[in-house]
Amino acid sequence: MTSANRGKFILISNAHCIPYNQYEERERYSECIRNLDFDKSNMSQLLKYMGYDSKGGYQVKNSTKEEIKDFLKTKLIEIDNDSSSQYDSLVILFLSGKLLCEAGKIYDKNGDILPRREILDIIKECKHFKGKPKIIFVQSFSFTEETEPMDSMDPLDSIANDFIANCEPNTDDLFVVSSYPRIGQGPWIIGENMIGSYFIQALVHVFKNSAYKKSFMELLKE
To answer: CB within 8 A of 86, min separation 6: which ones?
Structure first.
């Protein structure tokens, strides 16, 4: 990871569109939003620090499934049609969730699931990033305290690597990393002037300190 022209960063956030009625839900919602805003800012700053370009309207929020797909298709087609594009990798961050959500899922503003396969198919159609690393971060958050533990769902096979059919080689250079913050089980950092999820904080720390000398897969093991 030494290129000065690192790549393109796209942020898709549906973190501000979850309806709530009861006081308890409203409190949890507000806490999640504060932490997710911090995570979003942290990731944006990290990718900017690493040389990724996010200018030109490459962020969208509070969108339906079709709007998200159209947005992504449009931006990738723009890159394909721009002869001056010289990006050497692509990073996409999805932030979404609802009161009762599943780990590793992408939700639209109505709480409907956007199949990851549809997103992956759109990305693989982009000619500019053929043979180049494409990294997707999926942060799904729940506003309830009782949620199924992430490690009981075999995340390595069913979430992070579901794009590799039948354990075939990853010839598309495509990686998916999922995070599932949950209030009741302590995913948020607690301390004076400290907010955000453990996963994003750790990601920022490891990438800032080691991205110049280690591969992406090595960094995820840190």
So the answer is: 5
Three-state SS at 120: helix
> Residue 1 falls within a domain, yes or no?
no
Q: Let me know: does 145 contact 105? Beta carbons within 8 Å.
A: no
The four Cα atoms 180, 181, 183, 187 give a dihedral, to 10 degrees, of 120
How far are the Cα atoms of 18, 81, 104, 123 from residue 136, in angstroms, in the given order? 23, 22, 11, 10
Q: What is the DSSP string of 93-117?
A: EEEEEESS--TT--B-TTS-B--HH
**Spatial CA neighbour of 200 closest among 28, 30, 18, 44:** 44
Q: How far apart are CA 161 and CA 7, in angstroms?
A: 22
The model's pTM is: 0.78
Give the residue numbers spanning the domain of 178: 7-220
How does residue 150 score in pLDDT terms, banded at 50, 70 and 90? very low
**Tally of structural domains, the chain:** 1
Q: What is the CATH number of the domain that holds 61?
A: 3.40.50.1460
